[in-house]
Amino acid sequence: MNAVPDAPRFEEIWPRASGVPGWLKHGQASLLWDEAVRLPAAATVVEIGSHQGRSTVVLGNALKPTGGTLVAIDPFVEGRLFGGTPTRSKFEKNVSEAGLDEVVELVADYSTALRPGWTREFDMLYIDGKHDYWTVRDDLLWRTHLTAGGAVVIHDCFSSIGVTLAILRHVLFADDLAYERRSDSQALFRKRRPTARDRWRIVAELPWWIRNVGLKVLLRLRLRPVARMLGHDSPYDPY
């Protein structure tokens, strides 16, 4: 754990982070925090997908006491769905108000365009970019630059069709990435050789993933009463 004198605790940071619009839940943010505060001094974390900065504020505050750097990668695509320039302005404002200007290094580009020319080593990878199969497949290749034993945290891992299919195809049988645990759909993998038990953990999550996909279908069909019967009493997708 973080032993730096006067370093903040997660429960002190979460109220500020949770005030930033986003989908990261308390337990998911805590998972990010726990991994980041264990990193060595001056560590570097790569975050793919920042939106308005909820996860950025969590990770940045975890890294700040030890002089770490958070590389936030987001193209801030224009349009109603992603928000473009207004979303970037909100991101920069949230980072600044959290006192993280010296910690966060924003790279406004697509992760898939940036990766082929990337050479810097880093200590932790957080993937929460575009959720289609092809993008996630490419984002997983960023672990080439991840230090041995480093964490790979993936949001919506067992909630999104595209993300889960990429995990089944490119992680389940990989020889350098092991699944450890999750908080809701936020999953933690480790850059190490997986055991048979590590691989089985991924397979064991599939019924939960199928349930989540089914709930999304019901919500799209406006069948919320049926979703409620399955234990999902919310108008929003399960995360």
CA distance, first residue to last residue: 27 Å
Tally of contiguous helical segments: 10
Within the CATH hierarchy, at the fold level, what is the topology of the largest domain? Rossmann fold
Low-confidence stretches: none
Strand content: 15-25%
Shape: globular
CATH architecture of the largest domain: 3-Layer(aba) Sandwich
Number of separate domains: 2
Could you name the CATH class of the largest domain? Answer: Alpha Beta
Largest sheet: 7 strands, mixed
Helix content class: 40-55%
Q: Please give the order of strands in the largest beta sheet.
A: 3-2-1-4-5-7-6
Find the count of extended strands (DSSP E, 2+ residues): 7
Order of helices and strands: HHEHEHEHEHEHEEHHH
Rg, rounded, reads 18 Å
Structural class, judged by helices and strands?
A: alpha/beta
Looking at CATH, the homologous superfamily of the largest domain is Vaccinia Virus protein VP39
Mean pLDDT: 94
In short:
With 239 residues, the protein is of the alpha/beta class. It has helices at 10-18, 26-36, 54-63, 84-97, 111-114, 133-140, 161-170, 196-204, 206-220, 224-229, and strands at residues 44-48, 69-73, 104-107, 122-127, 146-154, 178-183, 186-190.
Written overview of the protein:
- The protein has 239 residues and is of the alpha/beta class.
- It has two domains: 10-204, Vaccinia Virus protein VP39 (Rossmann fold, 3-Layer(aba) Sandwich); 207-239.
- The chain is 40% helix and 17% strand.
- It is built from ten helices and seven strands.
- It has helices at 10-18, 26-36, 54-63, 84-97, 111-114, 133-140, 161-170, 196-204, 206-220, 224-229; strands at residues 44-48, 69-73, 104-107, 122-127, 146-154, 178-183, 186-190.
- It has a seven-stranded mixed sheet with strand order 3-2-1-4-5-7-6, sandwiched between helices.
- A hairpin with a 2-residue loop joins strand 6 and strand 7 (186-190).
- Helix 6 (133-140) packs across helix 7.
- The radius of gyration is 18 Å and the shape is globular.
- The two termini are 27 Å apart.
- The model has no long low-confidence stretch (mean pLDDT 94).
